[in-house]
Amino acid sequence: MYTDNLITGLLEIGGVDITVIYGDERCREVPYASQVSWLFDPAPPYSMSEIFSMSSRIDFSGYDIFHTPHYVLPYRIPIPAVVTVHDLIHITHPERIWYPSVAKFLIRSAVRRADGVLAVSRHTQSGVQTLTSVAARKVRFVPNAISPRKLAQTGEVAHAEDGAPYLLAIFSNTKPHKGLSDLLTAYRDFREGGSWKSVTPQCPELILAGYGVTDGAASVQGHEGVRVVGALSDEELRETVRGARALIVPSLVEGFCLPAVEAQAVGTPVVCRPVPALLELVTERDTVAESFSVPSLTRALEASMQSASSSRDATPRAHLDLYSCAKVASMVRSEYERILSSRSAR
Fold first, then answer.
1. Is 220 in contact with 228 (CB distance < 8 Å)?
2. Whose CA, among 96, 148, 153, 159, lies 20 to 30 Å from 324?
3. Model's pTM, two decimal places?
4. Residue 8: is its pLDDT beyond 70?
């Protein structure tokens, strides 16, 4: 999604000819497919082939800059390079015991060799600077962009009042740091607590969406009021987000959180834990749990329901301009121009 939205923005503002390196034909099933050039390379992401062999398979002589959308920078890239670092989750919340040591090596190596480094949140920016000890000016904050396909034809931004009420959570995966288990427990307690009765005669259903949530579908069985819908089209997801009483983000850590700003953009408040990257995004209409405990998350669900029922104010939108495709693309293009100008001045 990061790459798609960035390319969409760069095409919108113009001034950059784009070639996309791909390894799977499904990558080309995008609206902008005919507006860019495509270059096949078989290396999987994070692979030895990507790190050590890609540069020998590709002729870079016809290109000005190489931008990798994750923290792996192949060796021996002969042109200026830009690296995007989304988060440090492989270090702070590793799934394998060896992840931190490998991730630290790869990030430090990439940051040292890159001409520019983009961090999608100020929290990630600070973390990268601390980890690598590079000059602050080398790591630039450039956030994720909101896909225009998620915003088209939304009409009024306030959430829909018609139909049965529901809460929504979106999962790209169900790794432990995403907090699915905690959410299920918090929702059960919210449902049994009954505070929702002062707002609506029917307890809001909890809908779990996203292409990653089906991996954890088995853990949902037996939880009353919980429904898994899985992956949705852009239009289906847009309308599902717009109709929700709140978008719940139970994550313990995030590098950014694109669903949160997409929800805000269509008028749906956000409920989240006090994750630093999320604290950069929330507004006064959103609800942040007091701590990372499950009871705190339950109380946040209750508070969000009460807040939504007592206020008809639209979600503040001024801050969303920062996350438009054109704005983000302009920031990235400026970084490209800075790097190329610096190189030519040497």
1. yes
2. 159
3. 0.90
4. yes
Instruction: Report which residue type is found at 286.
Output: D
How far is 330 from 247, CA to CA, in rounded Å?
29
Q: Could you tell me the residue range of the domain that residue 79 belongs to?
A: 2-145+324-345
231: its two tokens: 């992956």
Cα gap 161→144, rounded to integer Å: 30
Q: Which amino acid is at 293?
A: S
Is residue 284 domain-shared with residue 251, that is, in the same domain? yes
CA distance 266 to 345: 45
Spatial CB neighbours of 278, under 8 Å, sequence gap ≥ 6:
249, 251, 254, 257, 260, 270, 272, 288
**Which helix or strand (DSSP H or E) is residue 248 part of?**
strand 246-249
pLDDT exceeds cutoff 60 at 159: no
Mean pLDDT value of segment 125-143? 94
Structure tokens that stand for 124 in this block: 């990630």
Res. 211: pLDDT tops 90: no
Q: What is the CATH number of the domain that holds 181?
A: 3.40.50.2000
The whole-angstrom separation of Cα 15 and Cα 11 is 8
Secondary structure of residue 326 in the 3-state scheme: helix
